[in-house]
Amino acid sequence: MKVNLFQKLLKELENLTYTQSKQAEDVLHKKCSLENLEDVTGHMESCPHCQSKSFYKWGVRANLQRYRCNSCHKTFNALTNTPLARLRHKEVWIDYAKDVIEGKSTRDAASHCEVANSTTFRWRHRMLKIPTEIKAEHLHGIVEFDETYFLESQKGNHHLERKPRVRGGKATQRGISKEQTAVLIIRDRNGNTADSILETSNKETLSEVLIPLIDKDTLLCSDKKTSYTAFAKKFGYKLETINVSAKEHIRDGIYHVQNINAYDSRLKEWMKHFHGVATKYLESYLGWMRLLDREKDITARQLLAVFAGRGLSYQPLMRT
Question: Starting at the edge strand that comes first in sequence, how are the strands of the sheet with 55-61 ordered?
Answer without folding.
Answer: 55-61, 64-69, 75-76
